[in-house]
Design brief:
seven-stranded mixed β-sheet, alpha+beta, about 190 residues, two-stranded antiparallel ribbon, Aminopeptidase
């Protein structure tokens, strides 16, 4: 465990990954004993996106989108080539993903994650495979992209690679934390 205080400057590694062909795994089945559904939001307001973003990202220093002007955030999340999907299980949101097809031939998995209470219940792989298959279902897609960093869940990078994404570059970034944070992995 690596503990930091609000106001600490941290350096961390960002990895960009690509998938250049549709994966062979096909559409996933829910894990045995799990009931859940994916719901695509129709022109969601900015606050709905931020509520999911905050719920999933609270342990990973997801704060950047709070600096985006609300009009800009609304324009992005409501764009015809951007889709927000919410994982609903037991009647409440357990995760989400956002797909962005605005760049021709590319689908970016812009956001992906589970709320802490849903981690370890077998839904992560199902949700990620569903996101990937949904991304590739758009006609004309030649590659899918995603990025993750060492502030994210410790298994994120390996999970993306198991699904068929390959790293294409890494960079070291810095940020000042706005709240106390504990990270489960070294940041560099």
């Amino acid at each position: 465990m690596h503990a930091f205080k609000a106001g600490d400057k941290v350096d961390y590694r960002v990895t960009w990954l690509e998938m250049r062909q549709r994966p062979s795994f096909g559409w996933p089945s829910l894990p045995v004993g799990r009931e859940a559904m994916l719901v695509r939001a129709d022109t969601p307001p900015w606050w709905y996106f931020l509520s999911l973003y905050d719920a999933v990202g609270r342990d990973y220093a997801w704060t950047d989108r709070h600096n985006t002007p609300r009009e800009e955030l609304n324009a992005w999340i409501q764009h015809a080539d951007v889709a927000l999907y919410t994982l609903i299980g037991a009647g409440w949101p357990q995760g989400f993903f956002v797909l962005d097809w605005r760049e021709e031939g590319t689908c970016e998995l812009a956001y992906f994650g589970l709320v802490p209470e849903a981690v370890g219940r077998g839904l992560g792989k199902w949700l990620l495979q569903s996101a990937i298959m949904t991304g590739w279902d758009r006609e004309g897609i030649q590659k899918m992209t995603v990025n993750t960093c060492t502030l994210d869940h410790p298994r994120a990078l390996a999970q993306y690679q198991r699904m068929g994404f390959s790293p294409v570059r890494t960079e070291i970034h810095s940020r000042v934390l706005i709240k106390d944070q504990v990270f489960k992995q070294p940041l560099l």
